[in-house]
Amino acid sequence: MNKLTIKACPVCGGTHLERTLTCIDHYASGEVFHLCGCRDCGFIFTQDFPVEAEIGRYYETPDYISHSDTKKGVMNSVYHWVRGYMLKRKARLVAHEAHRKTGRLLDIGTGTGYFADTMKRGGWQVEAIEKNAHARAFAKEHFGLEVKPDTALKDFEPDSFDVITLWHVMEHLEPLNEVWETLNSLLTEKGVLIVAVPNCSSYDARKYGAYWAAYDVPRHLWHFTPGTIQQLGSKHGFILAERHPMPFDAFYISMLTEKNMRHSCPFVRGMITGTLAWLHALVKKERSSSMIYVFRKKR
């Protein structure tokens, strides 16, 4: 298998890299992967991960919910309940941050299409992109969405969108800097970029260490904190305008982590940790398990 070894930090270009954690792929393969950190800026990433052409098999499991839409088990049932609530919240957030009720929206990594459908029914002109063919087929069958493959991203004209959203997608994208350059090009001058990613400086990440389920190696390549994603955005012509916590993520991630650790009563244990994480995020939102970042173009 061809693997990619990172020799310079994608965020700051520094070459002072050191191994920080060793994690296991609990979803698909049981393989071991190492996380490295940049001593110059603190950015953390998965080292020696499968190249884009070969990583697909690590998503080929019926339990990968963003592609399969499975409702199997208590934790996935919780995920579906929370998603229903979050879809409404996301739609309100987009309208608030974009200062408009309708417009042109691009959803990258749309999965099975729930958010894209929500926005389309709300009156937005929606384009959606998804790499996984089964997820695209689901979106077509259930919502009538014509979701494009990821190769279509390069086909859009500059200044095509008022809003671009990536909900838990940025951490999966191998050509990180190239993607950010493309996003800047596709947004209008007053456009809004909304990115949701796990926060590896959160309460639950620090509690669980290498077992934290949101490291999700090797599918998650990049592991952001509020500071490193702000630095990455600035590098590509964006300013960070707003940050929003995603408090429910800590419950799902903690339950999944407890399950991966083979602890008894993972649902109960996860609820307890999720509650503690939620309380920490109330005090300081930068400790939230996942964060939503709102970027605008520099002028």
From TrEMBL:
Alphabetic keyword roster: Methyltransferase, Transferase
One Pfam family linked to the record: Methyltransf_23
SUPFAM superfamilies linked: S-adenosyl-L-methionine-dependent methyltransferases
GO biological process, one term: methylation
InterPro entries found in the cross-reference section: SAM-dependent_MTases_sf
GO molecular function, one term: methyltransferase activity
Protein name according to UniProt: Class I SAM-dependent methyltransferase
PANTHER family listed in its UniProt record: METHYLTRANSFERASE TYPE 11, TRANS-ACONITATE 2-METHYLTRANSFERASE-RELATED
